[in-house]
Amino acid sequence: MNLRRDVFQAIADPTRRAILLLVATQSMTAGAIASNFDTARPTVSKHLQILTECELLTQEQNGREIYYYTNAQKMKEVADFIEPFRKMWDDRFNKLEAVMKKYNSKK
């Protein structure tokens, strides 16, 4: 059975977000990534598998080691999708802030 993972389900998990932050600055092996977490290595491997299936991480073999690094293009696609929502909420919060300032100045 071919399981298709959703990128937003993948980044919903705090451990997977932490892995993405770790690998964002440099490529790392699974062992190096796992050493940053207080969980079993198979658990981290499962997170890496999910992130790889979603194409947020890419694997590259170098000798006997497999290095993981972020897929910048996929991350940009996610950011581009989220950007209009961020702008909308920024606008709403700015309007709310203006209303609150106006309300407080009347007191």
Structure, described:
The chain has 107 residues and is α+β, with helices and mostly antiparallel strands. It has two domains: 1-70, Winged helix-like DNA-binding domain superfamily/Winged helix DNA-binding domain (Arc Repressor Mutant, subunit A, Orthogonal Bundle), CATH 1.10.10.10; 72-107. It is 66% helix and 13% strand. The protein is built from five helices and three strands; from the N terminus they run H-H-E-H-H-E-E-H. It has helices spanning 7-12, 14-25, 30-34, 41-53, 72-106, and strands at 28-29, 57-62, 65-70. The chain has a three-stranded antiparallel beta sheet with strand order 1-3-2. The longest helix is centred in the C-terminal third of the chain and has 35 residues, at 72-106. It is elongated and about 70 Å long. It starts with 6 loop residues before the first helix and ends with a helix. The mean pLDDT is 91.
